[in-house]
Structure to design on (571 residues):
């Protein structure tokens, strides 16, 4: 009885269905897998003729002929199975038959999985051959299970000869078996093969948390290849750094407060106000006459702010036609208007996201656009032309103008609400005539910069020339000064620039527009007349003197009329 119970337990543990019939064709064994596959309980079929339960069964044929029937399909209950039927012989006589059957769908799934594995293996080998990769795979004992054709050819062997051998028999100095045993990867190691130093990698293959082998690959066939790659990477890194610098130059601030030259009270106050503005995130309105350097201050504020790493986008509101300004500022979607760029185009607000948008000449902006700018400032969002959804933007506005916005507001030429929205932190850039004490330092810096730009030898300026420059009112401010100095540097051969080199047109303008200090502006007309006459006489004397006419020690020594201004000996 004990043996019968153990035998029954074994039969019921089998995954395949098992049915046994005696010599008369009656079912005597029907295990649980047979119950599961056919849907018939054992109690219902045991003791019954097999043809009674399965009318199309071929078990009687096996009993009659004594020959097995292998791989036959038949329908049993709810499934189609494949079965192997074998006779049971005793003392040369057929005393029964056994049928072992399995669900066809399960077999097909296993066959498909096997086919997939074969397909993946073939694909891998094809890829390795196409890429000319030198790859070796070993099992945990170091036996070669895969080798690429390129590697086998280079080693002077074949895939068929290599597979099944220990890795040390195929590759000299191999450590693949060590990696397969220890599970420690070796990447970028030097490996000497056939007299050449190669760079290789060896990585363990882990399955279910257990190391089952290792894969190795030749990374560089020669150390010189690695050196060449390093050199190329260094070149690429240098180029990337240069491109990043160029991008910062194109979209970032080019100037800082260090570029604003001068120590006069007027310019120091402007720099101090601008530095305070840079610390916050409020809108800044930079005001001043044309040519005073308002854009320079805008650059410096951005460079000193928390947004310095972001873009600095400039828009000249006076240079763009009113009908195009909206598209320029807010962008447009594809098909928004005739000639619209395919795919649309982002506006300056989008480009300045997380940075600064500099609106130069804001006083020239049309009233219709002023309302849209106001909404963008209030809502912190814009909408492209032809767009359907608003776009959130994080932009700081710096505006600049040389116009009297208060007068424009009174005349209805500028929106009052926009004025108050822009004029949160005002910065006034003084004209050059209000800070003539900055001229020596400013002229010296500009002359050096112009000489460098034009590739000429560095030149110096005489005190007499500085006196003449200081006596002029500079209606064009620093822009006009740069224009004059550039003309002198490029047209005068001498390394020392003197008043005699000033063009007649400048002297004529200087006589018409002498500098009048703030104190003189409030003085009686007689004092003003006397001051202007003195300045005119000084300029005329400077023009006629043209320096000392005595030549000593091979160089010209320049002199000028006595001056009340104290200039440094050299500039």
């Amino acid at each position: 009885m004990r043996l019968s119970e153990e035998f029954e337990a074994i039969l019921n543990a089998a995954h395949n269905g098992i049915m046994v019939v005696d010599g008369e064709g009656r079912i005597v064994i029907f295990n649980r897998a047979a119950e599961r596959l056919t849907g018939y309980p054992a109690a219902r079929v045991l003791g019954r003729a097999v043809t009674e339960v399965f009318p199309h069964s071929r078990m009687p044929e096996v009993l009659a002929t004594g020959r097995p029937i292998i791989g036959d399909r038949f329908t049993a209950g709810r499934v189609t199975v494949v079965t192997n039927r074998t006779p049971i012989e005793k003392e040369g006589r057929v005393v029964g038959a056994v049928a072992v059957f399995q669900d066809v769908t399960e077999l097909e799934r296993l066959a498909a999985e096997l086919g997939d594995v074969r397909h993946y293996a073939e694909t891998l080998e094809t890829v390795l051959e196409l890429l000319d990769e030198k790859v070796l795979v070993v099992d945990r004992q170091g036996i070669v299970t895969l080798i690429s054709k390129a590697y086998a050819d280079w080693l002077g062997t074949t895939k068929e000869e290599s597979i099944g051998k220990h890795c040390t028999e195929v590759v000299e100095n191999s450590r693949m078996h060590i990696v397969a045993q220890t599970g420690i990867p070796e990447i970028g190691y030097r490996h000497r093969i056939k007299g050449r130093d190669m760079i290789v990698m060896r990585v363990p293959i882990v399955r279910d948390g257990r190391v089952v082998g290792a894969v190795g690959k030749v990374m560089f066939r020669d150390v010189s290849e690695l050196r060449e790659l390093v050199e190329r990477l260094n070149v690429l890194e240098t180029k990337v750094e240069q491109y990043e610098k160029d991008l910062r130059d194109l979209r970032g601030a080019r100037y800082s407060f260090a570029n604003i030259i001068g120590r006069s009270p007027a310019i120091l106050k402007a720099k101090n106000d601008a530095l305070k503005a840079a610390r916050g995130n409020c809108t800044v309105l930079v005001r001043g006459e044309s040519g005073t350097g308002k854009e320079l201050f805008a650059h410096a504020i951005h460079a000193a702010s928390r947004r310095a790493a972001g873009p600095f986008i400039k828009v000249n509101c006076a240079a763009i036609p009113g009908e195009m300004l909206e598209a320029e500022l807010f962008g447009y979607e594809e098909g928004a208007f005739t000639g619209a760029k395919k795919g649309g185009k982002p506006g300056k607000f989008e480009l300045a996201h997380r940075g600064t948008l500099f609106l130069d000449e804001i006083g020239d902006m049309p009233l219709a656009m002023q309302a849209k700018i106001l909404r963008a400032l209030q809502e912190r969002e814009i909408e492209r032309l032809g767009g359907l959804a608003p776009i959130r933007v994080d932009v700081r506005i710096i505006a600049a103008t040389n116009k009297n916005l208060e007068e424009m507001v009174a005349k209805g030429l500028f929106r009052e609400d926009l004025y108050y929205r822009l004029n949160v932190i005002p910065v006034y850039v003084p004209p050059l005539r209000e800070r003539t004490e900055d001229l020596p330092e400013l002229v010296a810096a500009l002359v050096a910069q112009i000489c460098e730009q034009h590739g000429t030898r560095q030149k110096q300026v005489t005190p007499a020339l500085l006196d003449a420059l200081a006596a002029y009112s500079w209606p064009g401010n620093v822009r006009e000064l740069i224009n004059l100095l550039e003309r002198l540097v490029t047209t005068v051969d001498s390394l020392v620039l003197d008043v005699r080199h000033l063009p007649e047109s400048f002297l004529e303008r200087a006589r018409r527009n002498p500098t009048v200090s703030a104190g003189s502006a409030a003085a009686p007309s007689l004092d003003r007349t006397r001051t202007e006459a003195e300045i005119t006489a000084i300029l005329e004397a400077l023009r006629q003197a043209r320096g000392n006419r005595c030549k000593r020690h091979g160089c010209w020594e320049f002199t000028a009329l006595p001056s009340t201004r104290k200039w440094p000996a050299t500039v």
Q: What stands out?
A: The CA atoms of residues 138 and 144 lie 4 Å apart. Residues 223-251 form the longest helix (29 residues). The chain has 24 helices and 23 strands. The first strand starts at residue 17 and ends at 22.
